[in-house]
Amino acid sequence: MVKNMNKALLSKPSGLVEQALKVNKQTTTEDALNIDYTATVGQPNCQNAKFSTQNVNVYYANNQAIHDVSLDIGAHEVIALIGPSGCGKSTYLRCLNRMNDTIDICRVEGQILLDQENIYHQKQDPVLLRARVGMVFQKPNPFPKSIYDNVAYGPRIHGLTSNKAELDELVEASLIKAGLFQEVKDRLQAPGTGLSGGQQQRLCIARTIAVQPEVILMDEPASALDPIATAKIEELINELKENFTIVIVTHSMQQAARVSQRTAYFHMGRLIEVGDTNQIFTNPAHELTEKYITGRFG
Amino acid sequence: MKISALIILLLVFAAFSYFMAKQKITTAYRQRQQKTKILTLPKYFGYVAALCSLLPALIVMLLLQLIEEPYINSEISNYLTHYEHSSDNDLGLYLNEIKSADTADKVAALSAEKQQVYHRYHEIETTTKRTHTTIVLSIAVLFVIWGMRKINTDTPARKVFEKIIEGLLLLAASIAIMTTVGIVFSVLFESTRFFGEVPVLSFMLGTEWSPQTAIRADQVGSSAAFGAVPLFIGTMLISFIALLVSVPLGLMSAIYLSEYASHSVRSVAKPILEILAGIPTVVYGFFAALTVAPWIRGLGESIGLSVASESALAAGLVMGIMIIPFVSSLSDDVLSAVPQSLKEGSLGLGATHSETIIKVLIPAALPGIVGGVLLAASRAIGETMIVVMAAGLAANLTVNPLEAVTTVTVQIVTLLTGDQEFDSAKTLAAFALGLMLFVTTLVLNVIALHVVRKYREQYE
């Protein structure tokens, strides 16, 4: 029990708080280095924006984790958020489905529009928002229930199906879309926690798409997986972009290059540069971006 | 020599050998040529030497202690045969009289013959004790010397030390187990004596409980009735009411504390809740008897029900309040221990906070919650004071919570308080009740364990 408690303490969101505190410390060194930052370089806006965020500031108590980030996320695109540890990319991601609400000391300022509606508006129900904006976490976190119940969890909560047959169909379809059905079709009643790490993560993706969200947020979805499982997840992301808008935070620049159309580079809580993935990785406009992608820090 | 002085002396020996051995090894290390290899720390040799001098002497001392008394008794009775005294039965009494003469006055009050025995007794006692001290001390000294000579840098001191620690831990664990076994057997033996007098079936299935036997045969109640059913029904009824109060309240307050309460509220509310567990049950008892029971009676009469002034309901309600912290505190701990990632996973799918709690957190925390409820249940079943004061002593066979009932534990207390002969069915009944109670709680535990194993959702 103690072990688990420790894990609970170490896992997010407290991890995020620590990161935020780290950011604050680093800010002083940044000032010392006198790194040049005036505004985001590149094209933060797009034509058919699904999400449109303006001047987002996030604070953990008195520490500012994100400074004035303005970024559009286009419909049906895969956008990768990259940057060194503690740069605020996860915090930014968690603003998009108001997951930061679960952290008491977290405060979000600025405007975040989903389909032109402010998701931080008083009347907005974060529960409905999270049904529209699904999330896949860094560590696979299947519920300690059967594979079937894991996928059926969301549809049952939201009453998406009216009878057992429809639910069966939806579960099967979600598992097929997540590329897991062939592997688990004979043991749908087996516990989800008994699967391998990669399978668990695909189960979590199946669970997310079963709710039929419009956007899927992925917080380093492959960082706890081996290369083969990672390849499968990346393949899956490429298929999913047909139906969903995907925002993915990743530490692997190769992964960002492989799966995304646009890439945003975060540094010390600021959005430094955003642009086509090709351009960012071949011809970065900002000095910091170049340093990061060539591996001089991060 | 007194035992305490002997033990202190042994400890001094142990400390001495610790330092000697440590010194010896340190010196040996210093004289080594190569200095590279990692060495066993000298203190481990010290520990081993100390334990080597202490343990054998202690064991011998304990054994001698055990045989000392029988030995002295047999010696003195051998001596007494010269006086052509006493059958076996009287011997004990006779010896007791002599042994209890601890002041000069008492000795003077003894008869001349007994005084002689008294002096002989003390003679034997003194020599025996002196011999024992000598044996123990010489064993200690021998082992200290032997240990000093034997110990060298090749002694696997760390390994030996680990083994000794393991043995100590095993000893600690087995003491708890042995005590349990001991209690079970003592209850079991007394119970078999009881069941020799009262048939098992009439005890377990009988519906009348009146353990008092009249002195004269022509009085009312000339034969006692030992039907335990009313007592068990009473126990179940009161525990059920108590759990009915404490499980929902406790679980809900645990959920509030672990999930909804802010940090400051939690840091105040949780200790206050836990204080409930610290209130003496006597205090709960008179609260139940003087405040709750009359209140319930008044309430019942105002709606036209007849309520006994001591009722199962009053006792059950107060007991329920008393055991809330057992449920809430443990449940709170296990709920907080469920990984944050599971909670976020559920919230991320658009589940509300309460849906997350009901469908994810509680199933994952179920074993701990059931554990808390079980603890509460065993407290409720074993609780005596509140029932004595608030539910009465009358062994009514009823499931009506508005009537007076009594419980197993209360009857055990009434059977054993005061001056009692220890071979009547009335007194022995207490042991039989204790046994039944023990078996009941054991069965409950096994069932609960089974339920938990079947329904729990293991998150790692």
TrEMBL record, chain A:
Native source organism of the sequence: Marinicella litoralis
Domain annotation ABC transporter: ranges: 51-293
Record GO biological process: phosphate ion transmembrane transport
GO cellular component: membrane
PANTHER family: ABC TRANSPORTER I FAMILY MEMBER 17
The protein's name in its UniProt record: Phosphate ABC transporter ATP-binding protein (PhoT family)
Molecular functions per Gene Ontology: ATP binding; ATP hydrolysis activity; phosphate transmembrane transporter activity
Coiled-coil segments on the chain, per record: none
Lineage summary: Bacteria, Pseudomonadati, Pseudomonadota, Gammaproteobacteria, Lysobacterales
Annotated InterPro entries: AAA+_ATPase, ABC_transporter-like_ATP-bd, ABC_transporter-like_CS, P-loop_NTPase, PstB-like
Record key words, sorted: ATP-binding, Nucleotide-binding, Phosphate transport, Transport
From TrEMBL, chain B:
InterPro entries: MetI-like, MetI-like_sf, Phosphate_PstC, PstC_N
Annotated membrane topology: Multi-pass membrane protein
Keywords per UniProt: Cell inner membrane, Cell membrane, Membrane, Phosphate transport, Transmembrane, Transmembrane helix, Transport
Highest taxon of source: Bacteria
Database matches in Pfam families: BPD_transp_1, DUF3708
Ranges of residues in domain ABC transmembrane type-1: 232-448
Membrane spanning residue stretches: 45-67, 130-148, 168-189, 231-255, 275-296, 303-327, 357-377, 428-452
Family annotation (CDD domains): TM_PBP2
Molecular functions per Gene Ontology: phosphate transmembrane transporter activity
GO cellular component, one term: plasma membrane
Compartment annotation: Cell inner membrane; Cell membrane
Biological process, per Gene Ontology: phosphate ion transport
NCBIfam families listed in its UniProt record: phosphate_pstC
Function as written in the Swiss-Prot or TrEMBL entry: Part of the binding-protein-dependent transport system for phosphate; probably responsible for the translocation of the substrate across the membrane.
The family this protein is said to belong to: Belongs to the binding-protein-dependent transport system permease family. CysTW subfamily.
UniProt name for this protein: Phosphate transport system permease protein
Organism name: Marinicella litoralis
Organism placement in taxonomy: Bacteria, Pseudomonadati, Pseudomonadota, Gammaproteobacteria, Lysobacterales
